[in-house]
Write a structure and sequence with these properties.
The complex is a heterodimer.
Chain A lengths: L11 H26 L4 H34 L10 H7 L1 H18 L11 H6 L1 H6 L5 H27 L8 H34 L12 H26 L8 H32 L2 H11 L4 H18 L3 H4 L2 H27 L8 H23 L11 H5 L4
Chain B lengths: L2 E9 L2 H13 L3 E6 L7 H5 L6 H27 L12 H27 L6 E3 L11 E6 L6 H10 L4 E8 L2 E3 L2 H5 L11
Antiparallel strand pairs in B: 1-4, 1-5, 2-4, 3-6
The chains are: A mainly alpha, B alpha+beta.
């Protein structure tokens, strides 16, 4: 392994680009804050805080999906991901950073009583409304803040524990006994994260953060839907970084075989997302109960119609038809294209999930959305680059590394 | 029934088999097939087999299933026998998707299994010549097809030099046939005479 480059040096171009994107984003953020965020017009306020909400939540969850990827592959005793596992690890270091931004935004929204975003914040309305009164044990400020703190805190903490353990694979070769012990400890920590992930991303957190915008409406499919959305985008993000690193001449041990498996994951979870999309839609469409159809009314028949169906084309038809072929999943250009498309598609999906409920009358997708997006993309590139440079790129002494090197599909 | 002449080489180790396959191919012999007791990873690449088209067939069967379901249901519910179900429109696409999905899967699955059986020459009552009984137990059996230019004795020696533990020459039916082993195999001039 003499020719393997373990140390990532951040290229100057990457630094310039990430700082440039962050700069553009900050300008949009400050301008938006002045013209919208703190304006007296409630519509503008909702626009600004809603935009911040879906962007922060989206980016936190897709970075968290990276850690989930490591944990589930660890639990499944997977060996193939070891040669590039430092990439999802680096992406998951963003969880505390993006998590605190999300926390700050949500805390502001809840504490400044923005009941145009969360209707359940309005105490007099809740008192008069038997449905909201019934939900008030779950939808209240105290529980919201505590649960959000716990969720982000434990994602960060358990993810950090997982990354700490991974560092041990850089120190010294392991014999059979210490290797077995190492794998067992990995399994335990991965299981802890996965359980917490299921209790938060898999159920409560999307209800609390996003579904409660439509305070009366509920769907048991919603959290799974959100999870599928973020997991497939997270996988796309991992694939993008892997391809970038390969282009720069790093990650020598990863090749088309690993890309093929990532492509399969992207394909499979695009289909899984569609399955949930359809299940949620079909049941509500079939039952046709007004209190349920209210969610889809302005999305299917209102101004969000275009985005709603564009969403289905980008996130279902394109992955289905383009990623189906084996040769497509092994093609660096095509996977790059599809990864960007999928991330964009699910960003748009989050847009319509949040803004479709906040601003039902019109679609105002514009400079603010793309400005905030560029802020997060810039932050992501900057911090993932730094995290990659801070550690050896390959866990040299990981017991399963050889399995990854000889991996064939 | 087209009978052909084959040279058979048996190997008892994967690690010997792989270089032998490579050498036989570079020497220009035509490998009929390699029979192994279990699936050997990478052997298809070593033998230079082309990528299977089974998945393309599967895609076509799937599309056929989708088309069948959609055209059938839409014809029945809009033209042949329109029913008012819960006040839904006659062309109620979302309600048809589960059935369309199921038929797509059914067509693709059944079609692919049958196609796989056909290209692997597997069917009830159908027989195929076994080049060596132990290929289902612990031997890797490489079968090389002879052309008129092939010197079978040289080839046998070549295989033995490359690690074959047993070699012999067989004249056998190459494809499948409908019939019985005992009756049909009797007609071969040299039935399973394994030279040690």
């Amino acid at each position: 392994m003499a020719s393997i480059r373990l140390q990532f040096e951040i290229p100057g171009k990457m630094k310039t680009w990430s700082l440039g994107l962050i700069g553009v984003g900050l300008v949009a953020l400050i301008f938006g804050m002045i013209t919208k965020g703190f304006s007296t017009d409630e519509h503008e306020q909702v626009h600004f805080w809603g935009t911040l909400m879906y962007n922060t939540i989206f980016w936190t969850l897709i970075c968290n999906a990276s850690m989930f990827f490591i944990c589930v592959t660890t639990l499944a005793m997977g060996g193939w991901q070891q040669s590039f596992r430092r990439i999802p690890e680096a992406i998951s270091t963003l969880v505390p950073i993006f998590g605190s931004i999300t926390f700050a935004v949500l805390l502001y929204v809840v504490l400044s009583d923005k009941h145009h975003i969360y209707h359940w914040l309005d105490k007099s309305a809740v008192a008069k409304d038997p449905i909201l009164t019934g939900k008030s044990g779950f939808l209240n400020v105290k529980f919201f803040i505590i649960w959000t703190t716990l969720a982000i805190g434990f994602w960060s903490f358990l993810g950090w524990r997982m990354r700490q353990l991974s560092n041990e694979a850089d120190i010294a070769p392991m014999d059979h006994e210490s290797g077995t012990k190492f794998i067992f400890r990995n399994t335990v920590r991965a299981a802890l994260f996965t359980v917490w992930f299921a209790l938060t991303v898999g159920s409560t957190v999307p209800w609390l953060w996003m579904m409660s915008i439509d305070a009366h409406w509920y769907s048991t499919m919603y959290s799974w839907y959100t999870f599928a959305s973020t997991f497939v985008s997270g996988l796309s993000l991992i694939a993008l970084w892997l391809i970038y690193m390969k282009n720069k001449g790093y990650m020598e041990l990863s090749n088309q075989e690993h890309l093929h498996d990532l492509g399969k994951f992207m394909f499979a979870f695009s289909i899984f997302w569609t399955y949930l999309w359809f299940s949620q839609y079909m049941l509500i469409w079939y039952a046709n109960i007004p209190e349920e159809t209210v969610y889809f009314k302005h999305r299917v028949q209102g101004p969000y119609k275009g985005i709603f169906f564009l969403n289905l084309i980008i996130n279902f038809l394109c992955p289905l038809l383009i990623l189906m072929k084996r040769s497509a999943k092994r093609n660096y250009t095509l996977v790059t294209f599809m990864a960007v498309l999928i991330i964009f598609g699910h960003w748009i999906d989050f847009y319509q999930m949040v803004m479709g409920s906040l601003m039902k009358e019109s679609v105002e997708l514009g400079w603010l959305d793309f400005g905030i997006l560029s802020f997060f993309v810039g932050m992501m590139i900057f911090f993932v680059g730094r995290a990659l440079a801070s550690k050896p790129l390959i866990p040299k002494y990981h017991p399963f590394l050889k399995e990854s090197v000889i991996h064939t599909v | 029934m087209a009978k052909k002449k084959f040279v058979v080489g048996c190997f008892d180790d994967e690690a010997v088999l792989f270089p032998a396959v490579k050498k036989v191919r570079t020497a220009g012999y035509k490998i009929h097939d390699v029979y192994t007791p279990f699936a050997v990873h990478g052997l298809d690449h070593a033998m230079g087999l082309r990528e299977t088209s089974l998945h393309t067939a599967g895609f076509i069967y799937g599309i056929a299933g989708t088309t069948t379901a959609l055209s059938c249901i839409s014809w029945i519910f809009t033209k042949d026998w329109p029913l008012n179900i819960g006040g839904k429109p006659h062309f109620a696409l979302p309600a048809w998707i589960p059935i369309t999905f199921e038929l797509t899967v059914l067509f693709a699955a059944v079609g692919m299994v049958l196609t796989f059986c056909y290209i692997s020459q597997l069917a009830p009552f159908v027989k195929k010549h076994h080049f060596h009984a132990r290929s289902t137990d612990d031997l890797f059996v490489m079968v090389i097809e002879c052309t008129e230019k092939t010197n079978a004795e040289d080839l046998k020696a070549f295989l033995a030099a490359n690690g074959a533990v047993e070699t012999d020459i067989q004249i056998a039916e190459e494809g499948w046939w409908l019939g019985r082993y005992d009756k049909d195999e009797m007609r071969y001039e040299n039935k399973q005479t394994v030279a040690a």
